[in-house]
Design goal:
131 residues; alpha/beta; Cytidine Deaminase, domain 2; 3 helices; 24% helix; binds zinc ion
Length: 131
């Protein structure tokens, strides 16, 4: 289970809406599955179907997380036109099996947010608790 404070939940949905029709991406930091902070990153691909984070921006976030003694809890990105389920590319690009993959789908009028853990052989749906 991943716990996300309501203001951060709202902020990542807003980020998805702002970038639509392109995918957005970002990092959620915190401790023990509880998110404390969101970092918006630029989608280097500028694509409606895939994303990648700029290494320099990612490095800056990692440095900041270290300064605050926080861990990377999740990587989030949006699916402007498709269901909130990891795409083939998402599975290929899932380098951190211990990190949640949060997907914000804008396919329906009301955004749907889902969390997963993507392992080598399986994808696990994880519960999101908005706190
Ligand atoms: Zn995706």
């Amino acid at each position: 289970m991943i716990r996300i404070p309501k203001p951060i939940y709202i902020a990542i949905v807003e980020h998805a809406r702002k970038e639509s029709p392109l995918e957005c991406c970002g990092i959620l930091s915190g401790k023990d599955g509880a998110v404390q902070r969101a970092f918006e990153l630029r989608n280097e691909e500028q694509s409606p179907v895939r994303y990648s984070m700029l290494p320099q921006e990612q490095l800056k976030v990692f440095e900041e997380m270290e300064r605050e003694s926080l861990d990377m809890v999740a990587i989030y990105h949006s699916h402007p036109h498709t269901l909130p389920f990891p795409s083939e590319t998402d599975v290929e690009m899932a380098f951190y099996p211990e990190v949640f993959s949060v997907i914000i789908s804008l396919k329906e009028e009301n955004p749907v947010v889902k969390a997963f853990r993507i392992g080598k052989y399986a994808i696990y749906l994880e519960e999101i608790e908005v706190i």
